[in-house]
Amino acid sequence: MVHRLTWFEPARAEDKLREFFITALIDMSATLTLQDQQGKYICITTLPARWMLKPGVEPSDEAIFGPELGTRLGELKAGLVKPGDRAELEIEAGDDTFFEFRCRMVEMGNHEINLMTVVLDRTEDRRRERLLRALLREVSHRSKNLLAIIQSIASQTARYSGTLDAFLGKFRGRLHALSQSQDLITDSSWRGAYFRDLLKQQVDRYVQENGSLVHVSGEDVMLTPNASLHIGLALHELVVNAVSHGDFLQRRRPIEVSCERFQTDAGPQIRIRWVEPVGNINKEALSAASSARFGSTVLERVVPSSVNGRATHQLDDKELRYELVFPQEIFE
Question: Which residues form the Signal transduction histidine kinase HWE region domain (predicted)?
Answer without folding.
Answer: 138-220
